Amino acid sequence: MSGDIRSSRTERLSRVDLFAFSSPVILFQAIELAWRTYLPAFFAATLGLPIAAVGMLLLAARLFDGLIDPCIGWASDRFPTRFGLRRPWMVMGAPLVSLGALGLFWAVPGTGIATLAAWSLVFHLGYTLIATPHGGWGLELSRDAHERVRVMGAKIWVAMAGMIVTLVLPSLLERGFGLGRAAQVGALGAAIVLLAPITVLLVLRRIREPDAPSTTRVANPFALFAGMLRTREMRRILILYGLVGMADAAAAGTFLFFVEQALALPGWGSTLMLVQGVVPLALLPFWARMSRRFGKRRVLLAGYGWQALVAPLALLLPAGGLALLVLWLIARSLVFGVDYMLLRAMVGDITRREVEQGQRWASSRYALFNVTLRLAMGLGVAAALGALGWAGFAPDEAGQAEVLFAVRAAYALPPTVAGLIACALLLRGGEARPAGPAERPGAALAA
């Protein structure tokens, strides 16, 4: 294949290869966008489920992720096949994602929570079978620290572009045809059903896996993950990742309620979400260059500080003030994606050292921080929706001023608090080491 990546030692990937490898991130973004933003409102307002029960369903799906993600990560490191370490798992995942999407996104009023939970398990199993091996694969693509930032930046850029493309259809249905939430969710479901096989096929046809080191053996997954957690730098990355997940999920899960109820702008939710995806497309390459010049820690600190400064201003936005809301969304999105890009690049630094030592644990390491992210997302959205339920908020009813302020708070305060805590953690620590941890998980892990 003329477009294949010839070796894991490739120093700079072509833009075509970067896009081909990053294309499944469009699928992941569509899934996360739906799961964090559209499905909570769809389950509560269209299917009629209690909002607190919706929060628990979303949390349960994330807990399921937490159980299977490390297993899939370890297995895709442990069992090489004639087709590679990562490829077979991604192939198995694609049809499960499409099948689960059919059950979730076309659910009708009266569908029970048990049925939705079953489809959610199928959906998330397929999602993890694609995302975890693909994530581990990405950590191995280059031995150059700055190229790893470029690879992760490309993935985040494609994610933002994917969010815009994904949102075009529901936004068109909302503003152009006046169609409601059920039609918008159905359109997202159709996109996911198609994206799963197409993006996986694109990666498999275009990109060749690096050869597995002959010493790769991970006999004890529990000792492996324990060894990873003994590294101080990895622990700090996981804490920061958890803060990102909780804040993003809480804000995403309440965004439509914030816009359409608290700010009295019905019919604008999907359209305004596009604003948040446009700005990072232009700025992510800039932030990647800044990290090369000033270091990852300083750029992360700037990003979290800006988040903590801007997010609480949502409490002051006037109801019906569309222009002010757009300006605020633009300001808030100036640093979108910087945290994901640089934290993943830091994990890539650690993984590169292991590869050079003849150890290939990239999917296991990716699974570790991915579990942290997904569990944090589940906790974040469950806490935010639970707080709204406790405050007496109902999506299909006009709320009192106190209840609508609770919606604002559930949207604005999690990113504010997460930004402040992240800044404190980064100010206490130094710049991340360019390679991996000094501590190796141990020779006992090798069979």
UniProtKB/TrEMBL annotation:
Which residue ranges run through the membrane?
16-35, 41-68, 89-107, 113-131, 152-173, 185-204, 238-259, 265-287, 299-319, 325-347, 368-393, 405-427
Give the signal peptide as a residue range, or say none if absent: none
What cellular-component terms does GO give this entry? plasma membrane
Example GO molecular function:
symporter activity
For this chain's UniProt record, which GO biological process terms are given?
carbohydrate transport
- Sorted UniProt keywords: Membrane, Transmembrane, Transmembrane helix
Coiled-coil regions in this chain? Answer: none
Question: Family assignment?
Answer: Belongs to the sodium:galactoside symporter (TC 2.A.2) family.
Indicate what this protein is called per its UniProt record.
Na+/melibiose symporter-like transporter
Identify the species of origin.
Sphingomonas leidyi
